[in-house]
């Protein structure tokens, strides 16, 4: 295994890294494959094979900063969460060993495909997995609730009243700007747009009706692994408080951000949600409100960067995302016009206006 030569923060040579990992797995490494590099080169994940033929996943996080309320780093957080979740029977990778002071975490390798990748290649197959995904997330939700006290020291340190209050209100302002930009592209008179503000206020009110719950803050479709038996939930390096509805929306909206041909795919629809009703841990109208807000935010980013290029940071993190802007815009417009997660009158009426303004573009 060869870490990047541009390593900063914690630096280990390939020889040092191999030696530590062989101690953790109790034997020699006979093969290693780099699976992903993220966080600007601060996190690597390898698939490694031991001399016994067992496959493991190795996550090395070079950022050892202590970011939790109890002064723990992200590796300590994930190691503690995975052990408790696995013991509760939650669908997570089996934790094997860790060396948190070096940012090293080993789990059993899980063979599967991320939801994001499946949604790009086989969107209908991904949508069909929605009931199983909801049940898997519900199991994790219940297990984390059981161990909330034990995991308290591992909560990411920030002001949650602000995060779920003032800060999110600023996010909602950006989302409304996205809807407004869509209207302006069709020369909708300001007074006509103003008449829709009460509907938007109802969406905002619905968002805040959700009850924040303890869980992962790394909720993306890349952190759901679809296997032959059940979905597996990945990445518990950051734990904290958020709405279950927002988590579910972002877990089940594939962004395809790492693919130049990627696009947005939402799994949420009334029929799919109805079929997994017994596992619900969310309010459907609150879910639809978060779904609509998230899509408006995506539209705002795309339209804003149609006017001005993405920042250096945004462009560097996901260059493939910005390479496919026209197709992405068409898809998010279609999702906004048609992609109802649940029947909620305010979003239904806002979607109807989009269909009036865009006609065949939104229907095609």
Description:
By secondary structure, this protein is an alpha+beta fold. The protein has 2 domains: 14-108, Phosphorylase Kinase, domain 1, CATH 3.30.200; 113-363, Aminoglycoside 3'-phosphotransferase, Chain: A, domain 2. It is built from 17 helices and 12 strands. The chain has helices spanning 14-25, 74-87, 115-121, 123-128, 130-146, 160-163, 166-185, 190-194, 197-207, 244-251, 270-274, 284-307, 312-317, 319-322, 325-338, 345-358, 360-363; strands at 29-38, 43-50, 55-61, 95-99, 104-108, 113-114, 212-216, 224-226, 231-233, 239-243, 253-254, 265-266. The strands form 4 sheets. It has a 5-stranded antiparallel β-sheet with strand order 1-2-3-5-4. Strands 6-8-9 form a 3-stranded antiparallel β-sheet. Strand 8 and strand 9 (231-233) form a beta hairpin. Helix 7 (166-185) packs across helix 12 (284-307) and helix 15 (325-338) crosses helix 16 (345-358). It is globular and about 70 Å long.
